[in-house]
């Protein structure tokens, strides 16, 4: 039997053994020449996969794969094609095992502890990145810091509906302490309108986090008539600006305070004289 026939027989036997190899080895096998020499580029591809997993936390398995890498390099200098294919199969199977997820090991307390440990690591890395960014770009970090501090201050001092009722009551008491002839008509009109809205339960509060809006609804929340429950008859967002009664920002209701300016001065009184 001539050498060519022996080579064909060896290739046929190796091809039959290669049918059991994992599909990840197939592109590597196609780059093996007829003489059974493993190319340098194929070794570099396999070594790159091993190095990628070496960077992972599973160091012990990465070291085991590194041993197989040395076997793969030595097989490139000699040996049968069958041995080289077998070495490639072992290496690829181990890479596949590393890549496939494993079932959770240990008790529930260990898994719970591992969860909080990983969570702590994530937040620690995020904090380190923030500190590093602040050191590298101090001006940008200062602007962001002031913005966050200002937003937090506005949120903490966002007035609620209770504070509006209290301010309205205080302003009403101020008006009662002034003679009727010297009261500002605009102040009286606004305070009486807000009192009627509170009594009819039509005053609503809408908050955007950093500020609040008091607006006037069509009817009370307790009303169950068709006109009050029909979605098509309810106030629409596009008409909300027409219903705004006040705007609250930094513990202050701005429209109410503006209406109470010169509440003890009646301009009509001086006009009649």
Structure, explained:
With 273 residues, the protein is mainly α. Helices cover 61% and strands 5% of the residues. The longest helix has 29 residues, at 108-136. The radius of gyration is 40 Å and the shape is elongated. The relative contact order is 0.07.
Compose a concise summary of this entry.
This protein has 273 residues and is mainly alpha-helical. It has helices at 3-18, 26-29, 40-54, 59-75, 81-99, 108-136, 138-156, 161-176, 185-199, 226-229, 254-259, 267-272, and strands at 203-207, 212-216, 244-248. A 3-stranded antiparallel beta sheet has the order 1-2-3.
Task: Please tag this protein with its features.
273 residues, mainly alpha, three-stranded antiparallel β-sheet, 12 helices, 3 strands, elongated, TIMM29
Using the alpha-carbon principal axes, give the shape.
elongated
The ordered H/E elements are HHHHHHHHHEEHEHH
How many β-strand stretches? Answer: 3
Distance between the termini: 136 Å
Helix content: 55-70%
Structural class: mainly alpha
Q: Averaging pLDDT over every residue, what do you get?
A: 76
Number of helices: 12
Task: Describe the largest sheet.
Answer: 3 strands, antiparallel
Low-confidence stretches: 18-24, 32-37
Structural Rg: 40 Å
